[in-house]
Amino acid sequence: MRHLYPLALLLAIIISSCQPNEKEKNNSVNGIWESIGSGWVLQIQDSAAYSLYDITSISCLPNRIGAFEEIQEVLKIKNDTLSLLKGVMTYNFVRQNTLPEVCLSTPEAAKQDDPLYNFEVFAETVREHYAFFKLNNLRWDELYEQQKDRLAKDPTDVKLYLTIEEILEKLNDNHAYLEATEDVYEAVDSSSEDSSETNDEQLPEYGDFQVAQMVAKHHMQEEMTEDSWLIQWGKLNETTGYIQLKAMWLYADLDIPKALIEKQGYVDAYVTTFHQMYEGAYIEKEVFGVRKIMDKVMEDLSQTTSMVIDVRFNGGGQDAVNFEILRRFNPERRKVVMTRLKHGKKFSPLQSLFLEASPKAYTNPVYVLTSQQTGSAAEALAIGAISLPHFTIIGSNTQGALSTALEKSLPNGWAFSISNEIYMDKDGNSYENVGVPPDYRLNYPEDRQDFFRSVVNNLEKDKADILEAIEALDK
């Protein structure tokens, strides 16, 4: 992955010579803005271009440089606060007079690649933004010192990778990841002990999309799916509709080059392509894609007397996709979520998220099927269901991975993310780690493969359990 600091230096020189005009009105978006809770600094110049930086107290890395028109339509300004809408979330920025000092100097190349410096940047990001120290009973200062000392004894890229991975595991962060380089992965693999053991009686392993496909094929008495591999729909019986949502992303038409798909595979090529875009524009494409499918789904199932939405095998994606789907069942605008972001030793002010109404909302009984494999944006659908009076949740607690992933980069080019958000239902209840509980419990195994096998090995029972739960709830 490429180093970003040379570009930072160039931008710092340009920006430092373009200080805001003192006579400029306060309602101008031009200038320097610092986010409340995400570690970003946004520079807007002459309403023509913008630069977004990831900052900590010891680092400043360019995140994105783009034309102002990319973000123009999603910006609002009131007094000295700028808000930026991205998907369903609004991020607030406060006006600053100058760029932070750390953005006006560039470390030497050796420092950019120094494992100890990269560790400190990672640690500062965690200290400032990780939201669940208290929930997970973590003493960060002790963990930080312990891991820093271990790295200092062997300050290599491999040790840096293993040190950060160990911290992320101890944080118990459901949305955390670390992406290094191929040479680091190869070195880690070559240094690890060969612990592969063969079992004479290996059990079959299933993927979530694979199990979802088997369930949909078996359970639907009448299938109506057209031109969709992510959403399948039809009827469980004569009166009950069925919608299976495999994911909350992959709906966007990104015009991915065929050569890239052949080289990386579709999903990896999809990720590579959307990372080259402004995130807000990418999310809009996801919403547009799922909207077209849901128009057809709701038309086909409009005459059913009840509906099942199956997200048991859905690991998540974009909240905006979840909101677009859930909107089809909402007859009036209502608050469904409250959220706040970790901001140093405090949290940002509470932000309420509202579900917009649909003029043709489906208001017959709806049953949402959940499991331990229901994660992230799929769990957010379950939280939204809590606010809809005609919705009932059937199954088991969801995964408990509700926070938005705050994605960052290290000076050496590695990417990582941590959870920086408290995501709550309309009454302020948080389900991080514990998951959203069902209204009617089905005893699904917690282990991923045990759950998949329990469904696949007896599809008839799985369908019968769903219908029996609906019947019991209707009494």
TrEMBL record:
Top-level lineage group: Bacteria
Pfam family, one: Peptidase_S41
SUPFAM superfamilies with a match to the protein in the record: ClpP/crotonase (SSF52096)
GO molecular function terms attached to this record: serine-type peptidase activity
Residues annotated as domain Tail specific protease: 253-443
Entry's Gene Ontology BP terms: proteolysis
Record PANTHER family: INTERPHOTORECEPTOR RETINOID-BINDING PROTEIN, RETINOL-BINDING PROTEIN 3
Protein name: Tail specific protease domain-containing protein
Organism: Poritiphilus flavus
